[in-house]
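Reply to dn_fold:

You asked what the input looked like. This is it:
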Amino acid sequence: MKKVLMTAMTNSISEVMETMFFMPVEIGPETTLSDSGIDLKTALACRLKFTGDICGNIDVISPPPLVAELASNFLGENQSDLTWEQQFGTFSEMLNMVCGNALKKVKCREPYKLGIPEKITGSDLNSAAECTLIETMDSNMAILLSA
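and this is what came back:
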């Protein structure tokens, strides 16, 4: 079931990133967070917990410049005009959209419920955890499913 959910997540990421953030992405290889090339000390990370047939959380980890680009594309504002709150709010909303879109595609007996996205830090993450890279034109982010 975890593999089905991760497939739904990666498909959802492609859809949401292209339609809502005007950013085409490629699903990259699975790797560990420590080998992802993302600096966990400076990265922005967001976690969304979910319950249902499977309970767990999904984390998205991104370099700050990519978060600024996402927010700029979504809000239609110059990156230099965006506050940190707007950037992180957009980042957490992207995770909410991806997770909601993915979970509605997974057949289940018990409906899924989403929590509220929360900010986490690199120290909250296990650097040895397996993640999937999401490759953009200029940078990569990582998605981590814990179920």
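The radius of gyration is 14 Å.
Hope that clears it up.
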